[in-house]
Amino acid sequence: MPPTPRPDQSSPAPNGPTGVQDTAAQDGSFLTTAQGLRLPDTHHSLKAGDRGPTLLEDFHLREKITHFDHERIPERVVHARGAAAHGTFESYGSAGTVTKARFLAQKGRKTDVFVRFSTVLGSRGSADTVRDTRGFAVKFYTDEGTFDLVGNNIPVFFIQDGIKFPDIIHAGKPQPDIELPQAQSAHDSFWDFVSLHTEATHHVMWNMSDRGIPRSYRTMEGFGVHTFRLVNADGETRLVKFHWKPVAGVHSLVWEEAQIAAGVDPDFHRRDMSDGIKAGAPLEYEFGIQVMPDDGTETYEGIDLLDPTKIVPEELVPVQPIGKLTLDANPTNYFAETEQVAFHTGHLVPGIEVTNDPLMQARLFSYLDTQITRLGGPNFAQLPINRPHAPVNDMLRDGMHQTAVHTGVAPYRDNSLDEGEPVDADNDDHGYVQTERLIEGRAVRANPVSFDDHFTQPTMFYRSLSGVEQEHLVEAFTFELGKVYEQNIKERELAVLANVDADLCERVAEGLGLPAPAGVPAENVMLSPSLSQVIDTPGPIAGRKIGVVADSGSDLSGIDKLRKAAAARGATVHVIAATGGFLGKGARRQIVERSFLTVRSIEFDAIVVAGGTTPSTDIKLILMLQEAFRHCKAFGAWGDGTVLLEAAGIDESAPGVVIGATAVKAFNDEFLDAVGVHRAWDRASAVMGSVVPPSTDARVPAKKRSPRVRK
């Protein structure tokens, strides 16, 4: 029975349309369909064998997904908070050996795209920087039809079977009694679910890591999540995983930054993207594939390729670049484009096919159903942002919001009244003809045994991180579980972590003030250094923002030199002063883009104090400098600008702090290189309390180092 309402809760009077009292909406002890049919299993979709495709006859899956798809009108149930941009994809031509898809196979071919980034859990009014999975959805307007690659910034998902998607989202969304907390997973129902469904462990590890709070969309990876089947012109097939590699590198916020941004600039990510595009710094990504044989086993090196909670480490199968995506144009109208764009995993083109991944199989049904509800009917493809860039003759007629004026009198095949058109397209006509494959098996609600390993890859993930990243992950788990009310949920999740890594479990348990349970973590797991975001070689800084603290007595010509040096690398410089307006006169005049009142440290990737700047004790300025230093951002000062750093308690000899006599080329180059490393993690232990294990291999805790071998 439903739990008894608390004294602070109330409900509408239980009266029906005629005024007669109705029974409760949820009644009875057994799980049932909406028609009262008792159900023995809601964790597995009905498949043709435990590795087969999902069967259309699974009425429970369809009812459960359909009802979930229609829960919100008109806001998206998930991925409601989003931002988007237009751009172009250019093929390298290197994929021609594995796929006949023309937009990938032909070198130099350019395809228009529209990309929408989003968070999963929050409403449209939530903040950009919450800890959450991000959507990375790309609509390719190819001349063979529209292809939608609807992915995430995390390569694995919480669940293995799409029938459980409503469950994980219901658990992650604000709790239904008080609608709290918004856009957060730090609450009882989320951790109750993931601690009971340990298949979620790998995704939880990624989400609790720095990947859950990306610095920007331009520094965020994207993944297709599932395994796809590619078909080349000769009919040969390969299994692949899709990757988006940001040219700017993969970087994240620190937790305090994310929290500050959620309050002072909840539009942090969308503002960064739109500002970068306006400034002439487009977002750039290389599109890559991991290619594996399609030998009938649908596995590789013991990894089940149909399991969406598993990755194939890049050290086993390198990512081969096949094209470049450039986002260089903002939308004209948010509602008409970003809000009305409709993605669907079933939007495919010749040469790209799906597999029997049970999560993907459910998505093929769910996305279309969702769009029909959100956009008012089946004609959503006629909205400008959704229109294909290929000829359409679909024989579909009428329906809500029909804007096309169809001609002809025979919308059916075959016909003799409209001269037999439209005609069928075969392979020679670039028609979509699925690869023939054997489908057989008993109708069962089950997963293959290979889906049962829920801990080996989470162990690989944790042990592959650098020491500072491990510390951040420990802090995230401690924070999230510290927000959980029910003690048994905390203890259950600690038991899960004990099966991932003893060191991880002990550190989280210590933070919660609870004993660490014993587990059986995997030993001798392969390490994957590519999972770490920490770099020591300067990368691109296009789109980065540099704040320069100055006043009327500052070296304005030095600021101009730094501005030009930064612009040459695609970064922008913004002058920060006590008040707005201008500094200086004539050719050296500098516009004050930010004042102490309107700025916080989160806006900038680095801070410089210009020579000649008078030391200030303004608390807003001191706070900004101390925050940026605490967040391990690059710092610089030339001339007597160091006096202000000293006033703020910033050690000019600390890692990542660049000091020079003047803003000459050598100073600017060294400072911009420091920006390119993203953060000076060497000072993390001093300013953030992080502990980097004293190991020659910083990717493995000293007490848990493992050889780089396959299991």
TrEMBL record:
<dbReference type="Pfam" id="PF06628">
    <property type="entry name" value="Catalase-rel"/>
</dbReference>
<dbReference type="Pfam" id="PF18011">
    <property type="entry name" value="Catalase_C"/>
</dbReference>
<comment type="function">
    <text>Decomposes hydrogen peroxide into water and oxygen; serves to protect cells from the toxic effects of hydrogen peroxide.</text>
</comment>
<feature type="compositionally biased region" description="Polar residues">
    <location>
        <begin position="7"/>
        <end position="24"/>
    </location>
</feature>
<dbReference type="InterPro" id="IPR020835">
    <property type="entry name" value="Catalase_sf"/>
</dbReference>
<keyword id="KW-0479">Metal-binding</keyword>
<feature type="region of interest" description="Disordered">
    <location>
        <begin position="1"/>
        <end position="24"/>
    </location>
</feature>
<dbReference type="InterPro" id="IPR024708">
    <property type="entry name" value="Catalase_AS"/>
</dbReference>
<dbReference type="InterPro" id="IPR010582">
    <property type="entry name" value="Catalase_immune_responsive"/>
</dbReference>
<feature type="domain" description="Catalase core">
    <location>
        <begin position="32"/>
        <end position="421"/>
    </location>
</feature>
<dbReference type="InterPro" id="IPR018028">
    <property type="entry name" value="Catalase"/>
</dbReference>
<keyword id="KW-0408">Iron</keyword>
<protein>
    <recommendedName>
        <fullName>Catalase</fullName>
        <ecNumber>1.11.1.6</ecNumber>
    </recommendedName>
</protein>
<keyword id="KW-0575">Peroxidase</keyword>
<keyword id="KW-0349">Heme</keyword>
<dbReference type="InterPro" id="IPR043156">
    <property type="entry name" value="Catalase_clade2_helical"/>
</dbReference>
<keyword id="KW-0560">Oxidoreductase</keyword>
<comment type="similarity">
    <text>Belongs to the catalase family. HPII subfamily.</text>
</comment>
<dbReference type="InterPro" id="IPR011614">
    <property type="entry name" value="Catalase_core"/>
</dbReference>
<keyword id="KW-0376">Hydrogen peroxide</keyword>
<dbReference type="GO" id="GO:0004096">
    <property type="term" value="F:catalase activity"/>
</dbReference>
<dbReference type="InterPro" id="IPR029062">
    <property type="entry name" value="Class_I_gatase-like"/>
</dbReference>
<dbReference type="InterPro" id="IPR002226">
    <property type="entry name" value="Catalase_haem_BS"/>
</dbReference>
<dbReference type="InterPro" id="IPR041399">
    <property type="entry name" value="Catalase_large_C"/>
</dbReference>
<dbReference type="Pfam" id="PF00199">
    <property type="entry name" value="Catalase"/>
</dbReference>
<dbReference type="InterPro" id="IPR024712">
    <property type="entry name" value="Catalase_clade2"/>
</dbReference>
